[in-house]
Amino acid sequence: MKYQRIQLLIPVFMLLTLSLFSKGQRDGAEDKLSQKSETTVNIPQFSILISEIPEETEFFPGRDDPEMMVFYQLFEGLVVENPESCEIETALAEDWEFLEEGQVIRFRLKTVLWSDGTPVTAEDFRTSWLRMLELEEKTAKPFISLFIKDKGSEALRVLSDNTLEIEFNRPYPFALRLLCEPSFFLYPSSFFELENYSPQLLATIPSSSAYTLKPSFSDDKSFLLTKRKNYHENRGPETLKFTECSSEEALSLYTAAKAQWLTSYVFPVQKLSELEYRYDFSAPSGRTSYFYILNRMHSPLGNSGLRRELVEVVDTELLVQDLLRGPQQPAYSLIPGSFYKKEASSLRWPVEPEEEFEAAGKESPLIFIYPVEEGHRKVAEYLIALWYEKSGIPVEGRSMDWLDFLQARDRGEYDIALGGWTAQYNDPHSFLSLFLTGSLFRYPGSGNNDFDKLILEAELLPEGAAREKIQYEAESLLLHRDNEILPLFFTTFPQLLNTREFKGIGKNPSAPQPLKFLHN
């Protein structure tokens, strides 16, 4: 089958609400999250197939190009998310303490070294974060500056050589997960001076994580990362071998047992129908949700029965199978299920329509806006035809240039609009915050007070099942009671990997991840 990739052009933007946390709640979460996982490792070398690393230096949140896979092996931060358990573990931090009701976190560092033998200090972290802030301002793609107090250096405080504090805008229940993102990794100053992120240049700078890059490279575009002798832990394979190649080359190398992991970067999607039944095939969900927004503030979509009909007539499995023909996952929710650590989230509950509706007259079709790109247009045209064929609902599609589309959506000039999003951190709040009053998908006057109350209630709780239950309730309110969202599909990361032999990969909803967690 020919795979038609949907290119998602999703702006980096996030608006978060105020919340409070008690120190007692936070301390309880700390005890749970800081536990280490114990595994058995007997893997001399693990070979990974990736696409060619691009010759560019732009770093931005959410980037998942192949060089990010290398970054995750060379650099790390204060804490790390175990990709297998999704729990937070200490990385370069020894422990932490929540202060000022959770708005400030104080970290005490382990006695650790850079790969060149230089001690890691609290000032190293502050310098790295300040350089990242400069890069964010230069590229106009913020992440750290969205969350720290006053978006400035005073929020990053060094108390001693091994103690530092970070002050956030407010107490975030997911603060430790924010600190697991690459923007908060510890990078040497020389990292920010690199002309590009090629392996040859990355080999010239010290690393802060478990591996270091050897300066020698082979003709077959392979390079080696070796476990550091002076790293403070002994976990993961002894050597990581990365090979840059095409999809065709990758499949040949993998089937010849010359590599253990064919990553999503080089997965041959044109052969999906042949490969998806292999025992070693999997497609972990990603961080992108593709959905439509139904404008309940506009007549006739003020009728909940009509909104529900627009949703229920769409079979997302057929959409993926008949139109997309790729490794997307049919969606029945706004948020990929992997974002919920304690609660299931992928089931749609049957709900009887609250109101009957009459299809809009042919002279007054619903207005459907979407970007002009071919991928968006094909999905839109498929659904326009489906709505009319199955329910007699006329819909007028209006494709727009990206900027015009965003402006029309911000003004609420639509009945149906594209609303896809790629999460910047691993918490349901990254999606739910978009629907708070005054945020990205709420133009003036279109807020939902019941939804806002639930999110504020969730923000008073630490990570755990109680908080996720409220978040799930808020999501279901958008999906099932008010039918404001039409979920279509999630992106996935198709890969070939024998998970019976190799564990520690795949549960984290992103492709790049630290391979020091890999085990038998």
Beta content comes to 15-25%
Radius of gyration: 24 Å
Number of strands: 20
Looking across the biggest beta sheet, what order are the strands in?
8-9-10-1-11-20-12
Helix content: 25-40%
The CATH superfamily of the largest domain is Periplasmic binding protein-like II
CATH topology category name of the largest domain: D-Maltodextrin-Binding Protein, domain 2
Describe this structure in words.
It is built from 15 helices and 20 strands. The chain is an alpha+beta fold. Residues 1-35 and 344-353 have low confidence and may be disordered. α14 (449-458) packs antiparallel against α15. The chain has helices at 23-33, 66-74, 122-139, 144-147, 175-178, 199-202, 247-255, 272-275, 304-312, 316-324, 374-391, 402-410, 429-432, 449-458, 465-481, and strands spanning 45-50, 79-81, 88-90, 93-99, 104-109, 156-160, 163-167, 211-217, 222-227, 239-244, 261-262, 281-282, 285-294, 329-330, 366-371, 395-400, 416-418, 421-422, 485-492, 495-497. The protein has two domains: 34-280 and 494-517, Periplasmic binding protein-like II (D-Maltodextrin-Binding Protein, domain 2); 286-492, Dipeptide-binding Protein, domain 3 (Roll), CATH 3.10.105. β6 (156-160) and β7 (163-167) form a beta hairpin. It is globular, with a radius of gyration of 24 Å.
